[in-house]
Amino acid sequence: MMHHEELGHLIARYAIEDGIHATAVPRLSAVRISKPTDPVHSVHKAAICIAAQGRKQVILGQEVFEYGPGRHMLVSVDLPVIGQVIGATETEPYLAVRLDLDLDLCADLLMRVSPPSGETGRGLVISDTPRELVEAAIRLMRLQETPEDIDELAPLIEREMMYRLLKGEQGAFIRRMLEPENRNRNIGRAISWIKENYNRSFKVEDVASLSGMSPSSLHQHFREATAMSPLQYQKQLRLQEARRLIFSHSFDAASAGHSVGYDSPSQFSREYKRLFGAPPQRDIDRLRSEPQRYAEA
């Protein structure tokens, strides 16, 4: 049996219904989707996603990234993306594992491991998945069979996975995201500030100062990492949070827009329609009528 097939069997055993299922292992989730989905807007956390079956595409700005068995996605900073499962059936669903990154662990390993050199500005990359990385993911999933072993063995296996990443073709990518004076860390500080203050107006100059960068440097490198400007990033966060408030908490459109920082209801409706393809109420009605088509994966 191929290693990705073995991983797929384990995922299917613990994810018997469609959706993202938290496992007993900290920060490890199993994903199962049994038919293609519509595009789903979300903020993707720093994580590694390893596909065992089916195919998924992720859109960041205007770029499209696609992965399936034998490929994995690594995200280094929180990114507003559009995800869509494009290859899945009832008999062969999309199956994947997702491990949210422990950046402290990565930083500790970085002090001991010398990654290969390389260059990429994006906060998202797709790479071939080495056999050793899949084997480690299999062992991490199998710990659910012996939950008494999780506390002791899960950290060791996760450390091995991060080691494999650092020694592989994404090693330089991880190094850049963790080096204290690296611009990616500065961009990370800017992203964290915007996430915490998404409903407030701000000047790029102020965020640049908080991040230890000049405004022009912040703008350039922020766009390289996220494929959008700081203000566009804020807008994505605002609109996604407003959508959540309307869908999950029954806010009306005007109240949701005001809660996330919009002073003009008409501007909010225009920008909401531009991002999600329909005005707020029609979009929410569509989500509620077919929730499985918009399941995050």
TrEMBL record:
Source species, domain of life: Bacteria
Alphabetic keyword roster: Transcription, Transcription regulation
Gene3D superfamilies: Homeodomain-like (1.10.10.60)
One Gene Ontology MF term: sequence-specific DNA binding
Domain called HTH araC/xylS-type: residue spans: 188-286
A Pfam family reported for this protein in Swiss-Prot or TrEMBL: AraC_N
PANTHER family with a match to the protein in the record: ARAC-FAMILY TRANSCRIPTIONAL REGULATOR, TRANSCRIPTIONAL REGULATORY PROTEIN
Protein name according to UniProt: AraC family transcriptional regulator
Source species: Rhizobium setariae
